[in-house]
Amino acid sequence: MKNKRTFKENIKMLIRGYRLVFKIYRRSIFWSIFTNIVGTLSPYFSLYMSALVIDELAYSRDAKRLLLLAGISVIGHFLLNLAKRIIQGRANVYGSDTWRRDMYFYMETQNKMQYDHLENPDVVILREKIYAAKNATGAGMQVLLWEISQVFRSLINIILSVSLTVSMFKIVENREYEGFFAFINSPYSILVVIALIFLNTIVSIKTTNAQSQKIRKAYEDLAESNSLFGFLLNFGADITIFNMRKQIMSEYNKKLRRPSYVFKDRAYSIKYGSIRMIWDFVMTAILFIFVAAKAYIGVFGIGNFVLYRGTVAKFITAVSDLADIWGLFVQNNETMERVFEFLDLPDDMYHGTLSVEKRDD
Description:
Layout: H1 7-24, H2 26-58, H3 63-94, H4 98-111, H5 115-118, H6 121-137, H7 141-165, H8 180-184, H9 187-218, H10 220-234, H11 236-241, H12 245-257, H13 260-296, H14 302-343
Helix pairs in contact: 1-7, 1-14, 2-3, 2-7, 2-14, 6-10, 6-14, 7-14, 9-13, 9-14, 10-12, 13-14
């Protein structure tokens, strides 16, 4: 296998992987995405209505309009949550057997293979590596299935947050400010904010790549433990006959009593997760100061300040999540490369009919 793939190669593998996933889990993916769309709309609806209510309280103070806005907020929030619960129920029904469905796909693929592939030790080892990676960390098609909801959720968050916060970068004309507020009211502040968001994205991708790679390496011990357990389960009679039970159980217990992969997983998650958390905190603090300064100099009202504060935080989280998912996809492509190698095994068997000599006897 290649040690490092290009961006284009990763994208091609990802597209091919999702074609497979949509073929196997079509209904489950549809309802899962639908659930996330409805669930993502709810907090934005609440933020937008809160901004309108605050502006009304701060300026006009019309009692009838306040009651109308409050009623729309309560009823709208209730309807969105009700829709989410109903759709979530359908998603749970269709998602209940996703763990087994790709196994059926592999079995069906094997049934169509030529016989020498089924008896080839290299093919058997390749298939077992795919199964072991899935059982250890869900690597392969399961990761693509699990992350599709988060991808759509993050994309929707980015679209909605950008559409609601684009006016945040507006500059006040015909006013002169000094010092910090002059910088905030200049195009340079916008460039700095965009550069920081880009830097935050790079940090997320790098740390997630490193974390995923090290955790995947650590969980190779779990795959070995699963293989030992499977051997013990399937060949118990032979183990007893040849008096190998103590030896195998000793090896199995060594890996389970204080499993190194668990401690390594926690250590890597804390190390790289802390880096991402610090960067997210720094970004959130900077953008909060930016939004507060814009509100202070009169670019927008206090209601929009509440709105922008919420949408900006969601934008930062969505961008970070997408960066994390991309890093996970890059690492997952190592398993997908094995999947494609297994699916692309050549089929040299003759297909069609053979003529048979007609006999009268």
